[in-house]
Write a structure and sequence with these properties.
Length: 443
């Protein structure tokens, strides 16, 4: 009976046992909140939130918390996060919030300390190996080639050593996958060197490995491969490189959910890089060909809304009537270029800039101004538009809630959008000065 009570007590204690994750920012900065996420595929799953006091924060994790890769986020915009592995142990770390990835240091956590030690040790030897390769390309010598082989043997030894050290731990999967390919014989020219790295980039990476899948590792490697390993200054060649790189990555992703997540991630990255043309290609040629049950309709809708007024897109339709005559943006044919101006009589910046724009464009021949007034009523607007003859004037009632305003994603006034003859968006200048330079160039 006593043994049974003791057993139940131990079981009860183990169920209540918690793990702690303690973080400290050095310097502390001005952050006062932090969110803990678990990485699953290409997504962040919310775990809990907490407060930061004097740069310090702490999370209690229950005993049944799933092992995996976790992230603490302390900024709403930009890079403001620190990543770590959790595998049923307490984790303590410090970092500089302005450059977390480069400065994070673990004082507690066998998994994280071992991985950091591995990265530091092997990276140092890899740097020496790469330096020998570069030196050989500049000045081929047998001595350099011989030293290169010696360094390769050292890296191989270190890799074996750390695989043994990490055997049975979560970090084993990352150490195995981080091992970079080195050509067994020193490359004779830069093309051979780069081709070898490119061809063997994913040799040690298993896309079906669940531990890697539920971390940032695969996404980070995919980013490196697509955007950094495949670069050309020639636009036509760059398109070809992107195409081949994306196809190779998606062919490796056998899991349909992960393939969907990766495709969404790549589409978003190309949109952020203002390459909507290639993002469209990914959406139509890859994303929409995934099983219907896998696709996310909301992602597609949000994508189309977000990119509706990006550079390279044909401007959404606008119709208006002036003195009984109907106009359509898509069919108007009065100039080689058009400037859409979203403004308001209740905007002080607009009342200052619109007259300046009118004066600056009064004598132009190749550009036509289409001014969209965002108003609550037409009283003040009617007075002001009389000052700017020869412009097309459109009134958009309900101001920020006007359908055209929302379609064009106008968040501030004045907003300028430059179109070509075919109404394709060719520029979105942020200032009047920038707009004037563009107009002058187009003349």
């Amino acid at each position: 009976m006593k043994k049974l009570i003791l057993l139940l007590t131990l079981v009860s204690f183990s169920l209540q046992a918690q793990f702690k994750v303690n973080g400290e920012m050095k310097p502390s900065g001005k952050y006062n909140w932090v969110i803990l996420y678990k990485i699953e595929g290409a997504r962040q799953v919310f775990v809990k939130s907490g407060k930061i006091a004097n740069g310090k924060f702490s999370f209690d994790l229950p005993a049944n918390t799933k092992p995996g890769a976790y992230r603490v986020n302390y900024k709403t915009e930009g890079s403001g996060f620190a990543d770590f592995l959790f595998n049923k142990e307490n984790v303590d770390f410090t970092f500089n919030p302005d450059k977390a990835e480069e400065t994070i240091r673990f004082s507690k956590s066998t998994e994280n300390k071992l991985y950091q030690e591995y990265i530091k040790t092997v990276s140092s030897e890899q740097y020496k190996t790469d330096s020998l390769q570069i030196a050989y390309l500049k000045n081929p010598q047998l001595k350099t080639a011989s030293l290169y082989k010696t360094k390769l043997a050292k890296i191989a030894g270190l890799q074996k050593q750390y695989l043994l050290k990490s055997n049975g731990k979560m970090v084993y999967h990352f150490i195995k996958a981080t091992n970079r390919y080195n050509n067994p014989v020193i490359a004779k020219d830069p093309q051979e060197y780069l081709k070898n790295i490119n061809d063997h980039f994913f040799d040690t990476i298993d896309f079906d490995n669940k531990t890697l899948y539920n971390s940032t590792f695969l996404v980070d490697r995919i980013t490196d491969y697509v955007f950094y390993m495949n670069y050309s200054e020639d636009p036509k060649k760059q398109r070809e490189l992107y195409d081949n790189a994306v196809k190779r990555v998606l062919n490796k992703a056998k899991n349909q959910t992960f393939k969907k997540d990766i495709t969404e991630f790549l589409i978003t990255q190309f949109v952020n890089a203002n390459n909507v043309d290639f993002a469209d290609y990914l959406l139509n040629s890859f994303y929409k060909k995934l099983p219907t049950s896998t696709q996310n309709t909301e992602f597609t809708v949000n994508y189309l809304e977000r990119t509706a007024v990006t550079v390279g897109r044909v401007a959404p339709e606008i119709t208006w009537n002036t003195n009984g005559k109907n106009f359509k943006l898509s069919t108007i044919n009065e100039a080689n270029n058009y400037v859409l101006v979203f403004w308001s009589t209740g905007c002080g910046h607009c009342l200052r800039e619109i007259p300046q724009l009118y004066a600056a464009t009064k004598g132009i021949k190749n550009s036509k101004i289409i001014a969209f007034g965002m108003e609550d009523n037409n009283k003040e607007w009617n007075k002001h538009v009389q000052k700017y003859p020869n412009w097309h004037h459109i009134i958009g009632l309900k101001k920020w809630e006007n359908p055209i305003t929302r379609t064009y994603q106008i968040y501030s006034t004045p907003t300028y959008i430059v179109l070509d003859k075919n109404k394709k968006i060719i520029a979105k200048p942020e200032t009047l000065d920038e707009l004037q330079k563009i107009i002058k160039y187009l003349e």
